[in-house]
Write a structure and sequence with these properties.
The protein has one helix at 88-98, and strands at 6-14, 17-25, 32-36, 39-44, 52-58, 63-73, 76-83, 86-87, 100-106, 109-115, 122-126. By secondary structure, it is mainly beta. Mean pLDDT is 80; it is low at 119-131.
């Protein structure tokens, strides 16, 4: 599954759970592979341009995301993740200001409770898979 070319790993917390994004970059072959939760979602082989951007989606709501590859110096590269058009850091900061998230255990199951800015609907998400609760 994942090879030795993995150069970036990020955890993205969305309403339906935390998603792991992994990026593999073969700087000699030009290969680019993106995995979300261990599943390959993008593969580009034999890319002659070693810098650029790869777009994909994350989560059940298909949130837009992209990995940027920038040359730093010589053959050194910097990798960054954008979610919903923002750096991961800005996305996390903005999301924290409009949502509240709790992890609770009910009936022996772990639940992720997210109260969004609309505040008219409380969504309870199973940590594995998701289930919508009744409106409050």
């Amino acid at each position: 599954m994942l090879s030795g070319d993995v150069v970036g790993v990020w955890d993205v917390a969305l309403s339906d759970g935390v998603h792991r994004v992994e990026f593999a970059h073969g700087t000699t072959s030009g290969k680019r592979v993106i995995y979300v939760n261990g599943q390959e979602v993008v593969r580009r082989d034999w890319m002659f341009k070693l810098v650029g951007r790869e777009a994909f989606t994350v989560g059940g709501a298909h949130t837009k995301a992209s990995v940027s590859i920038d040359a730093v110096s010589g053959f050194a590269y910097e990798y960054s993740l954008e979610v919903d058009g923002k750096s991961l850091e800005k996305f996390v900061h903005d999301r924290a200001s409009v949502t509240h998230t709790w992890h609770v255990r009910v009936g022996g199951e772990d639940w992720r409770v997210v109260l969004g800015e609309a505040a008219s609907l409380l969504k309870c998400f199973l940590l594995i898979g998701w289930k919508e609760c009744c409106p409050i």
